[in-house]
Specification:
The structure is a single chain. This protein has 3 helices and 5 strands, in the order ββββαβαα. It is of the alpha+beta class. Strands 1-2-3-4-5 form a 5-stranded mixed β-sheet. Strand 3 and strand 4 form a beta hairpin. The chain starts with a strand and ends in a 5-residue tail after the last helix.
Length: about 110
């Protein structure tokens, strides 16, 4: 989708897709620090009227791009990002399973975050 701009709002833990001034989709994520630094996507949401235009895939691709530029990994918990990564292994290197376990523990310790 060529008219979509993706912006990373790291403090809010949101990677957002904009069409003009409107947020049309986003990935909610957090940054795991231990046992290693990783981006952990938890939810991918695209507004219903914008579904089917590749927005979720663009968000997932950009999340992995950010991780690559920062030399860290993505440890996805979001089912959409997990499936996207399986379909794009050349862009989405697999994370150590220990990071996924640590991410799940982080979520349990922060129940109101997502």
């Amino acid at each position: 989708m060529s008219d979509i701009e993706i912006r990373d709002d790291r403090p809010a833990g949101r990677l957002e897709a904009f069409a003009g001034d409107e947020v049309v989709g986003h990935i909610e994520y957090f940054v795991l620090e231990e046992p290693a630094r990783a981006l952990v996507p938890v939810h991918t949401i695209v507004e219903p009227e914008h579904e089917g235009h590749g927005i979720a895939g663009s968000l997932a691709r950009e999340l992995y791009g950010i991780a690559a530029r920062e030399d860290i990994v993505v440890a996805p918990l979001c089912p959409y990002v997990v499936k996207w990564a399986e379909r794009h292994p050349e862009e989405a290197p697999a994370a150590d399973p220990a990071l996924r376990r640590a991410a799940l523990e982080w979520l349990k310790a922060h129940p109101g975050r997502f």
